[in-house]
Design goal:
- Strands 1-2-4-3-5-6-7-8 form an eight-stranded mixed sheet, sandwiched between helices.
- The longest helix is centred in the first third of the chain and has 26 residues.
- The protein has seven helices and eight strands.
- The N and C termini lie far apart (69 Å).
- The chain is of the alpha/beta class.
- Helix content is 35%, strand content 19%.
């Protein structure tokens, strides 16, 4: 009996240590750069609410389209603030939720709460970077009637979330030098997305330049600036949001 108790205690201690290590790992990912933090300030054109969600709302504009953006795995959700702010300036409500342990896999259905909190929005687009994009695709897979468009940044759906029959607008933006969501992985995802998908490849771009959080392990060195890649991502994303707004 005493031996069994010792074994049980030992297993429990190992389990607790594993959980603690996982929590630390998820909470100590790449941090937002100064450029991202500076984009969180409200002014006469944009109101930024900071809390469990980052909400970017344009001032003095009638907003009918909302964009829910899931951050990349372990990345500070503030790292995508410049991207969100730019799209909000064009008349869109943009919301970035803070995910549990900075992992969207633990907050797949966060979009449901966001949609319920904003009944004034007529059209919804969901998207995300890397793991965040995959989880956004997962939410779309189970709620296709709620979502009018999908934007994937260096991301693709899981094989279990086949979206080839989805009728909404879809945009896949990838980078030629991405060391994580590699060109081969992006190409392999084509059968999982519908035929109307727009495919954009940023030549010379990499994985980390989809946000403002510094370099990332396993990634390649970009041949273009972060600003240039961000502008290309913004322009392509805006085209989809405008298309959804006109439908």
């Amino acid at each position: 009996m005493k031996k069994s108790i010792k074994i049980l205690i030992g297993v429990t201690v190992i389990f607790v240590l594993f959980i603690l290590a996982f929590v630390v790992w998820g909470s100590t990912g790449p941090k937002a750069m100064d450029e991202a933090v500076n984009a969180l300030t409200s002014d006469k054109t944009i109101t930024v609410d900071i809390g469990r969600w980052l909400v970017f709302r344009p001032e003095d504009q009638a907003v009918t389209t909302g964009y829910i953006f899931y951050p990349g795995g372990r990345v500070d959700y503030r790292a995508y603030a410049p991207y969100a702010r730019s799209l909000a300036l064009e008349g869109n409500l943009v919301i970035i939720p803070k995910m549990p342990l900075n992992l969207a896999v633990f907050g797949v259905n966060t979009a449901e709460k966001i949609i319920q909190a904003h009944p004034e929005i007529e059209n919804w687009v969901i998207g995300g970077h890397s793991l965040g994009g995959s989880m956004a695709a997962s939410y779309l897979y189970t709620h296709p009637a709620e979502i009018d468009g999908l934007i994937l940044l260096a991301s693709y759906p899981a094989e279990s979330n086949n979206l080839s029959n989805y009728s909404g607008d879809v945009l896949s933006i990838s980078a030629s030098l991405d060391g994580l969501a590699t060109p081969d992985k992006i190409a392999a995802s084509e059968p999982l997305l519908p035929p109307q998908t727009e495919w954009v490849v940023i030549e010379g771009g990499n994985h980390a330049y989809f946000g403002w959080y510094g370099d990332q392990k396993g990634d390649n060195q970009a041949l273009i600036s972060r600003e240039e890649q961000q502008n290309l991502v913004f322009q392509s994303s805006l085209m989809l949001l405008e298309a959804v707004n006109m439908e």
